[in-house]
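Today's session is about reading a structure prediction critically. Students often jump straight to the picture, but the first step is always the sequence itself: look for stretches that repeat, for charged clusters, for runs of hydrophobic residues. Only then move on to the predicted structure, which in these notes is written as discrete structure tokens rather than atom positions. Here is the chain we will use throughout the hour.
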Amino acid sequence: MSKPAILHTEASNGWAGQEIRILGEMLGMKGRGYEVLLATSPDNAIYDRAKRAGIETFSVRMDRKGFLPGVAALYRIIKDRGVGIVGTHSSRDSWIGGIAGRLAGAKVIRYRHISSALNTSPFTKLVYGPLTDGVITTGEFIMAQLIRELGLNPGKIYSVPTGINTEKFTGTGGDALRGQLGISADAPVIGMAAALRSWKGHRYMMEAMPSILAEYPDARLVLAGEGPVRPYIDQWKEEFGIAGAVTMLGHRDDVETVIAGFDISVMASYASEGIPQFALQSMASGKPVVGTDVGGIPEVVKDGITGLVVPPKDPAALAAAIKGLLSDRALMARMGEAGRSLVLERHTADRMLDDIEAVYGKILNT
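Below is the predicted structure for this chain, in token form.
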């Protein structure tokens, strides 16, 4: 069977895990010989990044006023380029892409990246049901959520977590970050690399820092990322009296270098997570992860094995877990080794691409 042309659509204007996953998947499939196309608004962050990476990218309006023109534009692209599979990723483009794909005779796959609460209206059931031939989620938790809350057929849902480039994320070169920041080699570094969004739980991690600093006064909290809660970070530093112990890096493209400089990675989220790329990147880098019992985090942060799992919105539990790890460096090393082994076994980029190709085969043969 010849390889189908694949068109991805994305209405989101952000640049975080979802968009990084889309671009990585597109490049991976292009490397495997697929013709891969992207349709998005030129105002979206993924537009320029995809073009620079060599993905053929189409400018398509995806706002409400552009709904019908968007459907027409995607229909023409699908027909002109012989697209066999349309992959949609956010709400607005899933309507536009789903309708255009159906009208043009292409197979439609709706991706679900996050575990936020679902609208269970008939319209939501339509976009995940009759308008799609299959649904790809980024974790088992989200798959179960769709089955439970929307009553979807389990046979049309596939869990395909994001794969990690294990040659890139090795945990080596951590001295580079410490050198940049003037952090001594033996100072504990606790890190988060995530979009600065409220549900990522940065406030709770910062609230946990005074307890950590009481026992480890030279500890540093390093935060990489940008987002809407950035204006509150300085406020929280003052509120919790930790201004001298917190370093903001902003957005970093060299996240592998950033993570290599961490001793412990923290996922403090209280909502919306699938299987976070940051957790997998940290594990591939040999870092123990302290994560919350939210979404797909416990699918990879195995409590007591690859890290520790704590309740969300619980600064005391976060602090206790982090201090417990810092007091036992041998345990940290064992968890780091177990995490890297888990990623190598189940969460590599090649494994993700293999699983997606298997989904393509099933959907194209239905």
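Discussion point for the tutorial: The chain has a mean pLDDT of 97.
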